[in-house]
Amino acid sequence: MTVIKSAILAYPESNNLGDYIQSIAAKQWIPSDHILGLDRDRLNTYIGPSVKLVMNGWFMEAPLNWPPSNKIIPLFLSFHLNPSAQKEMLTPQGIKYLKAHQPIGCRDIHTQKTLEERGIKTYFSACLTLGLKRNLFITPQTIRKGILVISPMERLLPEPKTLSLTQTNNFFNVLTQALKFPFKYFQYKIAMRKLYGFLADSNEKVSWHSQLIDRKKKSENIRIIAAENQLKLIASAQLVITSRIHSALPAVAFNTPVLFLSDGLDHPNQKSRLQGLEAFFPIINSSELASWKNKRPKPSEAHHPFVKMIREEMAAFFID
Q1: Nearest Cα to 263, choosing from 176, 209, 193?
Q2: Relative to the CA of 81, which of 39, 92, 212, 268 has its CA 20 to 30 Å away?
Q3: CA–CA distance from 222 to each of 96, 119, 131, 217, 225 (Å)?
Q4: What is the pTM (predicted TM-score) of this model?
Q5: Which one, of 87, 15, 77, 10, lies nearest residue 41 by Cα?
Q6: Residues 6+ apart with CB under 8 A from 64
Q7: Cα(59)–Cα(99) distance, rounded to whole angstroms?
Q8: Other CB atoms within 10 A of residue 293 CB
Q9: Burial 250-271 (b: 16+ CB within 10 A, else e)
Q10: Please, what are the domains in the chain?
Q11: Which residue in 129, 71, 77, 118 sits closest to 252, CA to CA?
Q12: Which is nearest to 76 in space by CA: 99, 96, 46?
């Protein structure tokens, strides 16, 4: 009898804790202690035994490596197709692959519309991180306290990869980012000043953290542990303020009030990722922070039907 293994996506080259958080969210639903980690950007090279893999998250940094190996049995749940990779991934071969595994559970409305325009059946699944279980990241003695600020307005500053040539980032994009940087940095300083002003009126202790981590100095295992620690901080905070989707969505899962700052997310590559997520948390600009003084956003309950669906989909897929 052939034994089919279980797998989650791995990110050996990522500096973003949000990637690891998405795999942590997938792993909690898999009834196995032996789970493989497959590099998201090299799924086409997998030659091991047949494996079941949940295809959640941002696809992909190396779009020319699409579609995956036929040794992979995929579950498309919380799938995001980024505009930067769209052309390379939606070739006739890429579309045929997606149709073979439809319906595709899409993390955002942009992905859903893009695939449906190509005749691919879809549904809106939201994100697996909405199903993160708070009890796994707290102790019985945990008391919520403080304001946790994670990577606010970082999208106004260029990430190193935006200034480097890649399969999805050509010379024109690099030049554009370089020319825009002085203006965007000025915007960043103004937005941060507004955030500091908002926090100055609070009596709560404020803790600052980044969702980015140096992948050259930290091993993949250390980066995964850092992601778990960030989830513990989110689970015990009274309020989370962030510009990172995978800090905001875990906050929703943990019933932690969250304000999402959209400064720097006007580009289609970023804006597309938010379509459909506005139901789960307030999406505001830093100029709107003043209207939130002395009040907290009410934790959302809109994610509950999606968590139920995710639980059922994962249980049916990974059942022995």
Answers
A1: 193
A2: 212
A3: 38, 42, 23, 10, 5
A4: 0.91
A5: 10
A6: 88, 167
A7: 17
A8: 10
A9: bbbbbebbbbbbbbbbeeeebe
A10: 5-130+305-318 (no CATH), 134-292 (3.40.50)
A11: 129
A12: 99
Q: What angle do CA 84, 272, 288 make, to 5 degrees?
A: 130
The pLDDT tens digits of the residues spanning 56-97 come to: 999 999 999 999 999 999 999 999 999 989 999 999 999 999
d(C-alpha 142, C-alpha 237), whole Å: 10
Reading the block at residue 80, the tokens are 């995001």
One-letter amino acid of 111 = T
CA torsion angle 16 21 22 27 (round to 10): 140
Phi-psi region of 67 (alpha: psi -120 to 50; beta: other; left: phi over 0): beta
Summarised one tens digit per residue, pLDDT across range 38-59 is 999 999 999 999 999 999 999 9
- 139-149 as b/e, with b when 16 or more CB fall inside 10 Å? eeeeeeeebbb
Two structure tokens written together for 315: 């249980």
**Of how many residues is the chain composed?**
320
